[in-house]
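[Solved] Which block belongs to which protein?

Original post:
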Amino acid sequence: MRTTIFCSLLLFTSSALSLRADPNILLITADDLGLQLSCYGDPYIKTPQLDALADSGVMFRTAYVTQASCSSSRSSMFTGLYPHTTGQIGLANGGFVLDPAQVGKNLPGYLKNAGYRTGILGKLHVTPEDSFPFDYRPKKGDTRDVKAVAQNAATFLNSSNEKPFFLMVNYSDPHFYKEKTKGKPIFPATWKGIPADPIPEDTVPGWDFQGFDEPVARERASNYYNTVKRLDVGVGLLLDELEKAGRSEDTLVIFLGDHGPPFNRGKTTCYESGLRVPFIVRWPGVSEAGIESEALVSAADIVPTVLDAVGAEFPREFHGESLRAVLSSEAATDGWREYLVGEFHFHGPTGFFPRRAIRDDRFKLIHNSLAENGNPLTRVDGDPTGVFATQPKYVDTPAGKAFQRYGNPPEWEFYDLKNDPVEFIDLSEEPEHTEHMATMKEALLEWQKETNDPLLSEEGYKRFRQLGVEAAKRSGR
């Protein structure tokens, strides 16, 4: 049984940082995972291992990554900063790199300075990679092979070393797999026999955030769910190894997706289906079991949370906050963040279309600052479903209109997430929302000022465009 709490930020004092503690840290990420878990209420899948993790800790109902693109999102997990500051504003394999001023200022580095041994399994995907001081990183590894992941984790966990550890485990699932022969992005229904009971194709509808009930949409969604089932098995095997090593009771476990599903109107957008991810924290001695929290949290909160947990001094100001204050049923109701922000710049090195999005507990505002001078990506990772938006049966439906807006958005979009969680109905021109929109615009501007967002100036736009040019040269695109 989970208890729902409505949390607000209680800023921990400097005395919390002076307490010395040595918990181990296990950070688990899933590549391209949105809220497609049974503990988050998805009716089409059962994820017993992740449900059990949620039952043993705190499950945050509303969590954002900082940008719905792998490298940018992960840069924030490592730094506690938004991509507009990290400089990793697009994919590492697209040629983007960290701002030189941010190189070396990352979580594994902070923890090594605090006496931790560090390890990573799977993708790092933030460059330059050699600036991340990992003691253990197998050169080869298929992190879709969840049994092998557990075995590699066991090697690290059971190594004879008295130091506390930080281990980051990055699963490939549910990211697509590109077939070697055809180069077609697919979602493998099974991989080395897992899951043993795959969901048959055509048994789940297409995504609610797309709204197309078509065979190809059902097939791709069904197989995506199978990759999530495999992920669930893998997390269970990993946590079993943690238990066998005798480290469950002294390890802070954080689990999240690096952004939403790789489908149109998901990944690479500022819609909820791109920014919103599962986020589960089990912090022995601090978190309570079975909590469902309504606190608005961010992947940028990971670094300050971990540093708080290990008792390390904060080496700088972060955009995120420690989650300590919102991990119990007695958490304060005043002072936590009222708004949650996400952003977007690039995915690959072309198609610069910056966005900023801000939400409260009900409403969402999106700013497409170059709406009159460009268009966003309209097809992500080979998803073919966008073609349905122009078919007669969909063109005048809310889904069809949402896809038209997806490809050609106005400067401002405004949504009522309570009544329209898939963001089909833009309310930005409705007079009754003018006042609330104005309030949220002010809040967004204040956040941009507080975080020194370069896109507050024309010079910032020019600099980010140039970063895209430089990235294209590095990647040969």
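(Second protein starts here: sequence line, then its structure tokens.)
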Amino acid sequence: MRTKPAEYSLYIHIPWCIKKCPYCDFNSHEKNAEYDENAYVDALIKNLSVDAEKVKNRPLKSIFIGGGTPSLFSAKSVERILDAAHQLLTLGDEVEITLEANPGTTEAKKFSDYYKIGVNRLSIGIQSFNDSHLKKLGRVHDAKQAHLAIETAQNAGFERINLDLMFGLPEQSIDQAIHDIELALSYQTGHLSHYQLTLEKNTLFHRYPPALPHDELIWEMQNACQLLIQQQLQQYEVSAYAADQHQSQHNLNYWQFGDYIGIGAGAHGKLTNAKGTITRYWKKKHPRDYIQLAGTLSVIGGQHTVNPSEIPFEFMMNALRLKSGFTMEQYQRRTHQDSSTIQKILDSLLAKNLLHMESTAYRCTEQGWNFLNDTIEHFLPSE
């Protein structure tokens, strides 16, 4: 019996923003004189034609256009990229196509055109509905534009919309965090991502830290918001909540340790060959270098083969983020490793009440969920 080719995802990186947010550590650049939308789309298509050879005959599960701010690009440019994907790749049934968008008025005007060309999911970076907090975060939109963007997306026909919200913001109170959640839930978009603001290296906030709420207040804030969200949506991942059938298929592929190819400046990919060898790679980070080298193998900025001893840890870093956990069958299929590689650790975590079994799935207990990093560290390879 022939094994069905494994599905994979495609990530497309658009590296430009109107303005770099002070908390952002992604590979993004402020739109400047070097910005050339047409040249970059040409480069993406050239690069996709090279990467397509790596996934021949495998069905594509999802496409995610992230950034940066992909909604800076015209619908015509996005359509060119999607047309190339249709021509070069084998698309599976009902491929989820997500585009990240800013709530700015200029970007929101394009939502209807994105929907018409086949984008079927929007992820809108709201972050907060509070003008004061948006200003402190360095966002280029205000609360009025945030509301208008959601309404515009719904009126355009989008049934799958994710709203990104942050908490633990400078000088934010619990009541303010809860109010953000109440406003987001009132739109019934079906998906909400709820992230704590963290001070990442190589960001302006890391160099010049703002005054954030203390840890106890952040913990109370998170719990209060979580209880409110769960009245309407189900938590299916550490920071993600969804109505039935509204989970992000692209992100689920990451968390289930699936394969993906990445095109665009600094985009990452992960591929597993028939022998179970996992290779991670990334493209040149600067848009200028990427555009020049996109159609060649020199566009690869680096790559490495994952050591088999590190695969259990890498798998658990993703799978245990999911409320549904994983089955042993999923572990073996995604890692090409036998259950014996992790069974002793699983037994130990079951005994410590950090994991429990429900039917055939291993899932975090409430204690394991609250101390997720500690739980996952048990799978680190021994020295």
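Accepted answer:
You had them paired correctly. Confirming on the second one: Residues 37-51 form the longest helix (15 residues).
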